[in-house]
Design brief:
The protein is mostly beta strands. The protein has three domains: about 180 residues, Acid Proteases (Cathepsin D, subunit A, domain 1, Beta Barrel); about 120 residues, Cathepsin D, subunit A, domain 1; about 80 residues, PDZ domain (Pdz3 Domain, Roll), CATH 2.30.42.10.
Length: about 425
């Protein structure tokens, strides 16, 4: 089949002109804004291969994590396949991990300090260009990418994060994400016709981020409306409320049960969140009852921004088939089989990070007071060696996290601490 050249982004689009003049982007990356603040690069033309002259849809198989992360295989300059995560919150067309960029021999330039991410600190960002990136049957030519260390992201996911596919994909195509079928389909915007019965929401692009209207109902506060970033890279998250929005809405309300969670570290340092529940979250005509919500306590960085009210993460999005149709300024949501699944928080009270080349060394990063983990005597820095006499290395971090979301489960944990081996028993229970 002959390769086709896909349109470049229209220069007359006022929203994109506004985006191009922004000196700092806010990159909403996996596990709560881990890489916010990467400077965006210029939009590039892409070459679309593997289609006939009818511009038929291209379907790309993807790996969908249990919490809604979207991972596809990509090749850079004919490299071996690498794991790239699809992130609608990334204003850079692509992001590449520093280790991978060095291993590929990519020429890095413009070493700079980034800011504006989750947390108050700065971090190093470089750029590379002239790349050919192939994703399924789609080839992107003459590409630029941000280059940065994604190791912290990998520790929190327990798997490789070689890079990200960002905003341009959603500008060039109508992007359909079918979480249940584990596939991503790209359509030509000019010929695309939607014939389903899904809910159509107004989709706005500002400063390189997609926003939709939504409402959250908080006890004693009623329904609070706002603009929420739609973030396919906001893995493990439901709804996150920014500090200014929470403060102006007097959240949390007196007597509202919360848990202080310090387990998320952004590129700019530690992030503080209050985990709680709302009465419901409404997006379009869909209402999710008793959802988990995360209320930012940050005084600096992305979550202290007053430019938006919050973000919608993958624990919400994976309950739908999601269609980004930017050409028509709409987001289409079709309820999927996961829609009615309860939204649960960890029931162990411990947060883990994964280390080692295989991500099979699990170290406790946080222990919540008065939780099962705290009552069992677990401490930050403990290494989980066995679970019910099964070596922990036989599990993935994702599997352990899912195990700890079920109530009234008893686990016998073998712990390594300061050269000693300890055996503790932990019984999970709902914390929020």
């Amino acid at each position: 089949m002959l390769p086709l050249t896909v349109r470049s982004v229209g220069k007359a689009d006022p929203e994109l002109l506004h985006m191009k003049t922004t000196t700092q982007s806010i990159l909403l990356l996996i596990l709560l804004l881990l890489t916010l603040g990467i400077p965006h690069t210029q939009l590039n033309q892409h070459t679309f291969t593997g289609q006939s002259s009818t511009k038929r849809p291209v379907t790309i198989p993807v790996d969908i994590t249990s919490y809604g992360g979207i991972v596809l295989q990509a090749r850079i300059n004919n490299s071996q396949p690498m794991s790239f995560w699809v992130d609608s919150g990334s204003t850079s067309p692509f992001v590449i991990d520093t280790k991978k960029a060095n291993a590929l021999g990519l020429k890095l330039k413009g070493h700079a300090l980034g800011a504006g991410a989750a947390g108050p600190n700065t971090y190093e960002v470089s750029q590379t260009s002239g790349l050919t990136i192939r994703v399924g049957q789609v080839t992107f030519t003459d590409q630029s990418a941000a280059v940065m260390n994604l190791g912290l992201v990998e520790e929190q996911f327990g798997r490789s994060v070689d890079g990200l596919v960002g905003l341009n994909l959603f500008l060039e195509y109508v992007v359909e994400i079918d979480y249940a079928a584990k596939q991503l389909t790209l359509y030509d915007p000019q010929s695309y016709v939607y014939s389903g019965v899904g809910d159509s929401l107004s989709l706005m692009l500002r400063d390189g981020h997609f926003f939709v209207p939504a409402e959250i109902d908080i006890r004693d506060r009623g329904e609070l409306a706002g603009r929420f970033v739609v973030d396919t890279g906001g893995c493990m998250m439901t709804v996150v409320l920014t500090t200014p929005f929470a403060n102006s809405s007097n959240l949390p309300v007196p007597g509202q049960k919360t848990i202080l969670d310090r387990s998320v570290s952004g590129l700019g340092g530690a992030t503080q969140l209050l985990v709680s529940r709302a009465a419901h979250f409404k997006i379009g005509r869909s209402v999710l009852p008793s959802p988990l919500i995360y209320i930012s306590q940050d005084k600096g960085g992305a979550l202290a921004s007053s430019q938006y009210e919050g973000l919608i993460g993958t624990e919400i999005l994976r309950r739908f088939k999601v269609i980004f149709d930017y050409a028509r300024h709409r987001l289409i949501l079709e309820r999927a089989a996961h829609f009615d699944e309860p939204l649960e928080y960890d029931m162990s009270g411990m947060s883990l990070r994964a280390y080692g080349s295989d991500f099979r060394t699990f170290k406790i990063y946080q222990v919540i007071e008065d939780s099962p983990a705290g009552q069992a005597g677990l401490r930050v820095g403990d290494i989980i060696d066995c679970i019910d006499a099964v070596p922990a290395s036989r599990f993935t971090l994702e599997q352990i996290q899912q195990m700890m979301k079920a109530p009234a489960r008893e686990y016998k944990l073998t712990i390594k601490r300061d050269g000693n081996t300890l055996l503790v028993q932990l019984t999970t229970r709902g914390l929020i």
